[in-house]
Amino acid sequence: MWIFLTALCIIILLMIFMAVCKWRIEIKYSDNKLKVKIGVLTVYSSSKQTKDGGLRVKLLGADYKEVFKNLKQIKAFLKNEKEDIILILKKLEKELVVERIDLSVTFGFSNAAATGIANGAIWGVITAAVSFVDKYLNIKNKINIALTPDYTEKCFNMAFGASFKMRPYKIYYIAKRAMPIYERYNKQSKIY
User: What are the CA-CA distances from residue 170 to residues 17, 24, 90, 95, 165 (Å)?
Assistant: First the structure.
């Protein structure tokens, strides 16, 4: 009987520890593979197949005018959803401790002028996004961005990595708030 009660107390204490302590969460995307780890457990790992529904192929076939059109659509969407995004960032500000963010993008349109223009525009978008998010999450000294234009080839390759600490049960609340925004974005992007 005492052994059972001791085991039950240990299990209850572990459950409380899991709920109260912040866990390290890592997200990595590279070579068309997405991997999500919580602690030492891999909770999601994609196969070698792309999960983006052909987005990668669309980007390779796009020219810079189409990219700018998409950027304008995204800017208009973000302007409409700004309040909801700020609410999510404020909630994350209290719950999330960012350890590092790494982003590496290589792109090219096989036209040096178009690639150079796109490079400047992308840096402008990245700088604005980092400044906006930094107001809430203090990421400026924890982010590493490498944007590499290829002026001779038409290409697109991206790698992303993020490491942060958060209580696992809080992820549900954040996802619940973010999913409607994501669904509205998908609806709007299908219209155009």
Answer: 14, 13, 13, 8, 11
- Count of H helices and E strands in the chain? 6, 6
Cα 94 to chain centroid, rounded: 18
Report the predicted TM-score, pTM, of the whole model to 2 decimal places. Answer: 0.69
pLDDT digits (tens, 9 = 90+) for 95-115: 888 999 999 988 888 888 888
Nearest to 101 by CA among 45, 20, 160: 160
Nearest to 68 by CA among 142, 141, 145, 125: 125
Q: What is the DSSP string of 120-141?
A: HHHHHHHHHHHHHHHHHH--GG
Pairwise CA distance, residues 106 & 45, whole Å: 23
* Domains of the chain by residue range: 22-191
Contacts of 182 (CB under 8 A, 6+ apart): none
Could you tell me which residues come within 8 angstroms of residue 184 by beta carbon, excluding any fewer than 6 positions away? Answer: 77, 81
Helix (H, G, I), strand (E, B) or coil at 31: coil
